[in-house]
Design brief:
The complex is a heterodimer.
Chain A lengths: L1 E5 L3 H10 L5 E5 L3 H11 L3 E2 L6 H6 L7 E4 L4 H13 L5 E5 L6 H6 L4 E3 L1 H14 L5 E5 L4 E7 L11 H4 L5 E8 L2 E3 L12 E7 L3 H8 L4
Parallel strand pairs in A: 1-2, 1-4, 2-3, 4-5, 5-6
Antiparallel strand pairs in A: 7-8, 8-11, 9-10, 9-11
Chain B lengths: L1 H7 L6 E4 L3 H12 L4 E5 L15 E4 L5 H6 L7 E4 L4 H14 L4 E5 L14 E4 L1 H20 L1
Parallel strand pairs in B: 1-2, 1-4, 2-3, 4-5, 5-6
The chains are: A alpha/beta, B alpha/beta.
Chain lengths: 220, 150
């Protein structure tokens, strides 16, 4: 994957470490010379010292050939502009940015930014999610919370134990994508049986998550 | 005088000016002196000192990138919005937000980098670019000089 990372200090360092060397091609733009020098020396990559808010800088970085842009600038409005320039002028499919003010996350989404990331917002969302569903399940939101992946640990006393998927009558809004049955990973089919100790990976719409989870965690 | 009072009480003629820059202060005064209900917004109250003493509109101290501040400025009811802070990123963000929240017929935006006007698609947007205006003024001066020579 070709990834362009704009701005940021510690955040850029962390993101570069996460993506570097995994068949990814990274290009970094940072206006601050000292930060650019540190990032370049630490990761052995080229860093373009320029202002990512300028269209000519993005063009010089070859942005139109990239798959993903990550904007980590200090100001929310600058991240908004970098993401909009990337998507609308250079037709980049995916643009992700940090948002310091969690109150702006909804507006960013409404104005076409795929993935605004706010630490405070994620924290509140996580707490909300756990109180909504159950502290015993982990969940992950995708596609602006349209899809949610939920991890459910199956206990001995659950009604679904020893049931095949075709006989389970799982609500139509959910689907079991995968079963972790240590040490195996089972891709389920209609005749696959659910066993105590399994961990089910379930996909559903966010609005149906509680219904699907409650169904699978019903006790005998 | 009664006409001015009537216009001032009419929210359909509300103009919201974002950014008390020299241009913003001047346009806010211009609108209020024509009898339009006007609100001037800036996050720095000292910037309001640029406004003419005869300005009859309202001042609102606050960050216009905050939806709550725009709500206090009655952006939803505004007939036009003029966004002229000194910062292009702020202007683009606020303009996009205003287009989302308001039914304003006209949204005027100042951009120092006129190429970024490509981000402002809504037909209600009108972009003012100081460099393009200066370029046009230069052309006009040049044309005037040529005619003078003839």
């Amino acid at each position: 994957m070709r990834i362009l990372i704009c701005g940021g200090k510690e955040e850029a360092d962390f993101v570069i470490s996460a993506f570097d060397g995994k068949e990814n091609h990274l290009v970094v733009i940072n206006e601050d010379y000292e930060t650019a020098k540190i990032l370049s020396e630490r990761h052995g990559i080229d860093v373009l010292v320029s202002d990512p808010l300028k269209i000519y800088t993005l063009a010089e970085a070859g942005i139109s050939h990239f798959d993903l842009v990550i904007s980590l600038l200090e100001r929310d409005v600058d991240n908004f502009v970098v993401c909009r320039l990337s998507k609308e002028i250079f037709q980049i499919q995916k643009a992700i940015c940090t948002v310091n003010n969690p109150g702006k996350v909804s507006a960013f989404r409404l104005m076409g930014i795929d993935s605004p990331i706010s630490a405070s917002y994620l924290l509140a969302d996580k707490i909300q999610g756990e109180s909504d569903v159950s502290s015993l399940v982990n969940s992950l939101s995708l596609e602006n919370k349209k899809v949610v992946i939920t991890e459910i640990k199956i206990k001995n006393n659950f009604a679904c134990v020893n049931q095949s998927l075709k006989n389970l009558a799982l609500p139509i809004e959910g689907n079991i994508c995968c079963i972790f049955r240590d040490p195996e990973v089972v891709i389920p089919r209609g005749d696959t049986m659910i066993k105590a100790g399994d961990t089910l990976i379930v996909a559903s719409a966010l609005s149906s998550q509680k219904k699907v989870v409650d169904f699978l965690r019903r006790e005998i | 005088m009664s006409l001015i009072k009537k216009k001032n009480s009419d929210m359909t003629s509300l103009t919201v000016v974002i950014g008390s820059s020299r241009l913003g202060a001047s346009l806010a005064y211009e609108n209020s002196s024509k009898g339009f209900y006007t609100t001037l917004v800036d996050k720095d109250k000292n910037a309001f000192k640029k406004v003419d003493a005869n300005y009859t509109g309202f001042f609102l101290e606050g960050d216009a990138t905050d939806e709550n501040v725009l709500a206090k400025a009655h952006i939803k009811e505004a007939s036009q919005c003029i966004i002229v802070t000194e910062d292009d990123s702020v202007n683009i963000y606020v303009a996009s937000l205003v287009a989302l929240l308001s039914k304003a017929r006209l949204i005027v935006v100042r951009l120092h980098d006129e190429k970024k006007a490509l981000l402002l698609h809504d037909p209600r947007f009108r972009v003012i670019s100081p460099s393009l205006l200066a370029h046009d003024a230069y052309e006009a001066i040049l044309n005037g000089e040529k005619k003078g020579n003839l």
